[in-house]
Write a structure and sequence with these properties.
Elements (H helix, E strand, L loop, with lengths): L3 E2 L4 E3 L1 H4 L17 H8 L5 H4 L13 H14 L3 E3 L5 E9 L5 E12 L8 E2 L6 H14 L1 E2 L3 E5 L3 H10 L5 E3 L8 E7 L2 H11 L5 E5 L1 H17 L11 E8 L6 E3 L2 E4 L7 H8 L3 E6 L2 H8 L8 E5 L3 E6 L3 H6 L5 H4 L2 H13 L4 H5 L4 E4 L2 H9 L5 E4 L5 H9 L10 E3 L9 E2 L7
Parallel strand pairs: 6-11, 8-12
Antiparallel strand pairs: 1-5, 2-3, 4-5, 4-10, 5-12, 7-21, 8-11, 9-10, 13-20, 14-18, 14-19, 15-17, 16-17, 16-19
Helix pairs in contact: 4-5, 5-8, 6-7
């Protein structure tokens, strides 16, 4: 069962920090490409100073990013920059955005404490592989601060909870924020403390199983590790000890605002072969169709069938590559589920990246010649400027593919999904210290 609980959230005090938009941020793993400095410049109280603090020469055991995060967090609480919710609450985060076709969507998220469970228990399911490095980093931050600042983004079946919460906030004003990086997204935030509403939401969620982690796999596995550490140190702690839970933003799988964006691949620092030879070799696995323009290439990508994944190739000229025979991957990967074998990212990496380009899995994991991009324009520009060799333009993974893979127990390759927009950090934090109870 999916056991959720309200919690005493820790939030920024608007009277002390002023514009709340200046202190929120992208999740920690998105704070790159110079964003860290920009967030630091926005406010001396930016949440980035806690979740992705700067490293300095001379950092050591007693003075480092984690001790500074702890000290800032404790100081902000003492000084009233942050405040603790006086009563247990659930929180709502609605994110309204415009798609490239001009349509507007709103994704409705419920923020709650979710009881942690192992993946083999069948309540929470992963859909992507994880790496060890980020988990060590997040565990160190959790140990130092005894709080969850980042959200695990969870997808749940059914849509009754949105109806319950929609009635609860009707007529209630929201905090309205805009995060710097995804500034076009309107973030609306509510605090729900009505015990009757909370009880109804908890009951509605209770029987659900097979919830899927959409984003935050590293944070979830870190929370499990922290829980196990705390249980070993405090064996007499009750079941409702906060360290048995993690902060989640939960979205219905039926939510019309649930959008997955593609993650494109940029090949750089590569000199084994030029574009024409790559395309010629690719004909072993793909129908290779040169096209005259980006518009036509992207139009053909949009017509792809699930049974025959396709992607775009740009080296200054355009081509569309469509897989010829799905049986090829069945022969190469007989022990993998059919849904996993037909993922666009599987086809791209197993056939083009590894067998045509000759970039093996270890090199991909180290990102030796590979960069991941949400915005393909950066890739087109890099190729045009001679900074990269090829851009591989992807279609988004579809929600039915995510469901099929997780249902079959298959973890999808890294960078298979990019749920848009990201769940912001800084709207609320969940304390998980040893004396905290949910």
């Amino acid at each position: 069962m999916a056991n959720i609980r309200p919690f005493h959230g820790i939030r920024y005090n608007p009277e002390r920090v002023g514009d709340l938009s200046a202190v929120i941020s992208q999740p920690y793993d998105r704070v790159r490409h110079g964003l860290q400095d920009r967030y630091y410049d926005q406010s001396p109280y930016s949440i980035v100073r806690i979740i992705r603090g700067k490293e300095y020469p001379g950092d050591g055991e007693t003075n480092n990013v984690y001790t500074r995060a702890r000290d800032d967090f404790q100081a902000w609480l003492r000084e009233g920059i942050m405040m603790r919710e006086p009563t247990p609450a659930l929180y709502l985060l609605h994110q309204t955005f415009t798609l490239p076709d001009g349509s507007q969507r709103t994704r409705k998220g419920l923020i709650a404490g979710l009881e942690l469970s192992r993946f083999d228990e069948g309540v929470i399911l992963p859909h992507e592989r994880t790496l060890s490095g980020p988990k060590v980093d997040r565990l160190n931050l959790m140990r130092a601060t005894a709080a969850n600042f980042g959200h695990i983004f969870i997808l749940y079946p059914g849509n009754g909870i949105n109806s319950l919460l929609g009635e609860a906030i009707q007529g209630q004003p929201a905090f309205e924020l805009r995060e710097m990086f995804e500034h076009d997204v309107l973030q609306q935030f509510w605090v729900v403390t009505d015990p009757a509403v909370i009880a109804a939401v908890v009951e509605e969620m209770s029987p659900k199983r097979n919830l899927i982690i959409a984003d935050g796999h590293h944070r979830y596995e870190t929370a499990l590790n922290y829980r196990d550490e705390m249980r070993a140190r405090h064996p007499d702690a009750p079941a409702n000890a906060a360290f048995n839970y993690c902060m989640t933003t939960m979205v219905s799988m039926e939510d019309p605002g649930l959008v997955i964006l593609p993650t494109h691949r940029l090949i750089h620092s590569y000199d084994r072969m030029a574009g024409p030879e790559v395309l010629e070799r690719a004909r072993q696995y793909f129908d290779v169709r040169p096209v005259p323009s980006r518009v036509e290439m992207e139009s053909l990508l949009g017509q792809a069938e699930l049974s025959h994944p396709r992607f775009g190739f740009y080296d200054g000229t355009y081509a569309v590559l469509t897989m010829l025979d799905p049986a090829v991957l069945e022969q190469l990967l007989p022990n993998r589920n059919a849904a996993w074998r037909l993922l666009d990212v599987t086809v791209l990496h197993e056939l083009l990246v590894e067998r045509v380009l000759g970039i093996d899995k270890d090199a991909v994991e180290r990102k030796e010649s590979l960069e991941y991009l949400r915005d393909p324009q950066m890739g087109y520009d890099a190729v045009d400027n001679g900074e990269a060799k090829f851009l591989l333009v992807m279609n988004p993974t579809r929600m039915e593919q995510v469901n099929a893979c997780t249902g079959a127990g298959e973890k999808m390759p890294q960078k298979s999904t990019d749920f848009y927009p990201k769940v912001i950090a800084g709207a609320v934090a969940m304390p998980i210290g040893v004396d905290e109870r949910l």
